[in-house]
Amino acid sequence: MDFGKIALTREQLDLWDSASEFYDTYATEAVYDEERRSGSGYSDTLHKALGERGWITPTWRPEEGGAGLDAVSVRILELEMERRGVPDITFGTTHLVLTLVEASGSDALTRKVLPGVASGDIRMCLGYTEPDGGSDLAAVRTRAQRTEDGGWVVNGAKMFTTGAHNCQYTILVTRTDPDVPKHRGITLFLVPLDISGVEIRPIHTVGGERTNAVFYDDVRIDDDHRLGPVNGGWGTLSIALKQEHGQYEATGLNEISGGMVYAKPLRSLLWHATRWARTPGVDGTVPFDDPRVRALLSEIVIDLEIIRAAPGSMGRILGSDRLVQRSAELLDMIGAEAILSHDGAGALEGGIFEWAHRYAQGTAIYGGTTDIARNIVAQHTLGLPRPPKLD
Ligand SMILES: Cc1cc2nc3c(=O)[nH]c(=O)nc-3n(C[C@H](O)[C@H](O)[C@H](O)COP(=O)(O)OP(=O)(O)OC[C@H]3O[C@@H](n4cnc5c(N)ncnc54)[C@H](O)[C@@H]3O)c2cc1C
Q1: Shared-domain flag, residues 269 and 208
Q2: Which CATH number belongs to the domain containing residue 282 in this structure?
Q3: Exposed site from 2, 26, 51, 375, fewest CB < 10 Å?
Q4: What is the pLDDT of residue 1?
Q5: Could you tell me which residues come within 8 angstroms of residue 354 by beta carbon, excluding any fewer than 6 positions away?
Q6: Distance (Å, rounded) from C-alpha 357 to C-alpha 272?
Q7: CB of 92 closer than 6 angstroms to any ligand 1 atom
Q8: What angle do CA 134, 135, 138 make, to 5 degrees?
Q9: How many domains does the chain have?
Q10: pLDDT at residue 250 above 90?
Q11: Which tens digits make up the pLDDT trace of 154-211?
Q12: CA gap 167, 116 in Å, rounded
């Protein structure tokens, strides 16, 4: 692996300028205000504007709705997006589902979905977790049954389908054969969310996020919406799960750590804490002169490097654990002003310290909890036996 610095071409530097101008125009204060209000992880204006430039699927050819960019240019776009901290949850889930649709979707489905993803008109979300449990995905109970016309009818419920209210499709993990061992009776579908029998109800989290409970009541879908083989859903699903857990083969310049998604708020926290540390307080003292402040901020810089380097589930655990730990330590260090929320008079740095502490807690849960990630490291890295069943 080459860790050397990359010399950017004129074209790549120009792209960086365009990306910066783009976010100056579209990542407005109104976008961030709306996100604080809704917690949806999505901005319609921003997402569609990305689509117009071919920047949702930047490696695709322009005639496919992409921008024909190379891996370095894509990384430039990602870095600029990350630096701005724009709402990007639906952007992320759409990409996870896209991997599955490309790998396992019928021709009819890919023809329908891919152009819309590129333009921004089609967004997709993840319908894995059920009210009775998320960690044991194979215990899925949502039922899909064949109909006489070769289609399917679905009944069941999913919890925490984040972004469903802004998406056109969800992946749906269903039980198609209840009489075989649980991993073998699962089938995946890409289900339209605007059809009869689908009901979306909001859930708001302590971290300020909006997610959803989605109910499926006699929902009819045709077989073209199936992803992968009937009863072979566990294998199909592993493509998306590996991607989400950062276990996929590194392609181009993609980061291999499963923790980068959690490192984003930590990086943003560091940036705001450093600005706070440089600013003189009312008594004229500068926080940065205090060695304890310098030590904590330096430790966060080191955390970020370690998270980036830790592969797959190890990065996922570190990313969340460090965010939980450091956001609490920053509140302690900065004091009462850090506990004021965005709307509070005198809130520091737009209330980010208070928000980050709340937000951090959920990062230990979604995408598979850090407990489950520890099990994965124990089994796959240390070669330890599977943990005993809890039930
Ligand atoms: C904000 C938010 C957004 C989410 N977005 C989505 C989404 O878009 N799509 C989606 O499908 N899901 C989503 N989820 C659901 C998330 O993936 C699940 O909450 C998670 O997988 C845990 O499942 P559970 O909540 O049912 O907890 P359970 O599986 O019931 O677990 C309860 C506790 O037991 C522990 N535990 C369970 N099994 C084991 C074991 N074998 N070993 C050790 N400890 C164990 C867990 O770590 C946890 O602490 C979201 C959740 C949140 C909070």
Answers
A1: no
A2: 1.20.140.10
A3: 2
A4: 59
A5: 331, 338, 339, 340, 341, 342, 344, 347
A6: 14
A7: no
A8: 85
A9: 3
A10: no
A11: 999 999 999 999 999 999 999 999 999 999 999 999 999 999 999 999 999 999 999 9
A12: 12
The rounded Å distance from CA 241 to ligand 1 centre is: 14
Nearest to 236 by CA among 135, 101, 144: 101
C-beta 90 within 6 A of ligand 1? no
Query: How far out from the chain centre does Cα 349 lie?
Result: 24
Parallel, antiparallel or unpaired: strands 169-175 and 124-127: parallel
Domain region containing 271: 260-381
**Which tokens sit at 54?**
């071919």
Among 88, 126, 142, 365, name the best residue to mutate to test ligand 1's pocket (greatest count of ligand atoms within 8 A of Cβ).
365
* Whole-angstrom distance, CA of residue 335 vs CA of residue 291: 16
pLDDT one-digit tens code per residue, 298-355 = 999 999 999 988 988 999 999 999 999 999 999 999 999 999 998 888 889 999 999 9
Q: Which residues contact 125 (CB under 8 A, 6 or more apart)?
A: 90, 93, 94, 97, 161, 162, 163, 164, 167, 169, 170, 171
Read off the tokens for 352.
């980010």
The pLDDT assigned to 252 comes to 43
Measured N-to-C along each axis, helices 260-278 and 312-334 cross at an angle, to the nearest 10 degrees, of 20
Q: Which amino acid is at 314?
A: M
Tell me which of 185, 211, 244 is where a domain ends.
244
